[in-house]
Design a protein that fits this description.
Pseudouridine synthase; Archaeosine Trna-guanine Transglycosylase, Chain: A, domain 4; globular; nine-stranded mixed sheet; four-stranded mixed sheet; alpha+beta
């Protein structure tokens, strides 16, 4: 099986738990995901199966939309409800207008410091493993983009919000930083990824439902083709001669639309039957194959 699956990750599962479940029920070892969700979180987890693991990097860069809840007054070592409490503060509940003002300060281009309890590697070791041993490492701040941050509800000490953000944004760190800006501290208590790129919760199925479809022999219908998964990317239809050239690592002329793209822009290279042959990049006026799938 080759293609993309959209899974609604259950709370309490790691992203790797979902991958292992899919490997077991599909009897396919080549499965990976395109963006980690912490055990506390639920929602859209995009799995790449079979050959589709080779297009994972093009999906990983997509924006995400989350619905989240944070609790004021309590800070934890992991910045979420699964961690150990570090501090509990007494505070006067902020006014709704004050909260909205602070949320506005966390939109646009930001520098965010990833949490110690994260999957980022430090000398080849996941940061969270070092943190669990009391060897937490402070990561350098890195740029992220928060496109929108909307207050959904507020009943002290809980604040609900929706955030549309770039790849690499830690929502739990966003909660901790907002709490600090409000002067009372905070941590994430609930998180649902509502959208990853073009895929939404409406597209997702539970791990249990995937297993049922496999038993019924209808799992093929749950897969999104590699070409469709990258539908947001410009495309070029290839002739049979161009398919041969691309398959041997040679470039082909771009279409007129591609010429207007910047060098390095990825382009889907598609057969007349709608099969994704490769992902190419525009370079010096030609489309060069970057990832060949056929």
């Amino acid at each position: 099986m080759n293609g993309v699956l959209i899974i609604d990750k259950p709370r309490g599962w790691t992203s790797h738990d979902v991958v292992n479940k899919a490997r077991h029920v599909l009897r396919e070892k080549r499965i990976g995901h395109t963006g980690t969700l912490d055990p506390l979180a639920t929602g859209v987890l995009v799995l790449c199966v079979g050959k589709a693991t080779r297009i994972a990097r093009y999906l990983e860069s997509d924006d995400k939309v989350y619905r989240a809840e944070m609790r004021l007054g309590v800070s934890t070592d992991t910045q979420d409800a699964d961690g150990q409490v570090l501090e509990t503060r007494q505070y006067d509940p902020p006014a709704r207008d004050a909260i909205m003002q602070v949320l506005g300060q966390f939109t646009g281009s930001l520098l965010q410091r990833p949490p110690a309890y994260s999957a980022l590697k430090v000398g080849g070791v996941p940061s969270y493993r070092l943190a669990r041993k009391g060897q937490a490492q402070e990561h350098a701040a890195r740029p992220v983009t928060v496109h929108s941050l909307d207050l959904l509800q507020y009943a002290d000490p809980l604040i609900g919000f929706r955030v549309h953000c770039s790849k690499g944004t830690y929502v739990r760190t966003l909660c901790a930083d907002i709490g600090d800006r409000l002067g009372c501290g905070a941590h994430l208590t609930a998180l649902t990824r509502e959208r990853a790129g073009r895929f939404t919760l409406a597209d997702a199925l539970s791990p249990g439902r995937l297993a049922e479809l496999v038993t019924e022999g209808t799992a093929d219908g749950a897969f999104v083709s590699m070409n469709e998964a990258l539908a947001g990317m410009p495309s070029k239809d290839l002739t049979s001669q161009e398919i041969t050239r691309i398959s041997h690592g040679n470039p082909v002329p771009p279409s007129p639309a591609d010429v207007r793209s910047a060098d390095g822009s990825p382009v889907r290279l598609v057969s007349e039957r709608g099969e994704l042959i490769a992902v190419g990049v525009l370079r010096n006026g030609l489309l060069w194959p970057e990832t060949v799938l056929a």
